[in-house]
Amino acid sequence: MAEHNRKRKIFIALTVILLLLGGGCRPEKPDFSLVFEKYALANGLEVILHQDHSDPIVAVSILYHVGSSR
Asked: Which strand (E) or helix (H) includes residue 17?
């Protein structure tokens, strides 16, 4: 039983040390930029265009901000 307690204490001590040391090791944020074009139409509709030629797919999203603000 004493051997089990000793192993448990060592495990807890190592876990605490690893958590303390690993807390300062954060990966750097990669440089990220998204190139897009934004237009405002005469009726107030905003259009945002982005082209990504990395995959041969097409996606269209339409979002409407309408209705009560409550």
From this structure: helix 2-22
Integer Cα distance of 5 and 13 in angstroms: 12
Contact status, residue 66 vs residue 51, Cβ threshold 8 Å: no
Residue 31's contacts (CB-CB under 8 Å, 6 or more residues apart) are none
Q: d(Cα 4, Cα 12) in Å, to the nearest integer? A: 12
* Pairing mode, strands 37-40 and 46-49: antiparallel
pTM: 0.43
Give, for all 70 residues of the chain, the pLDDT tens digit: 677 788 888 888 888 777 777 666 666 777 888 889 999 999 888 899 988 888 888 888 888 877 777 7
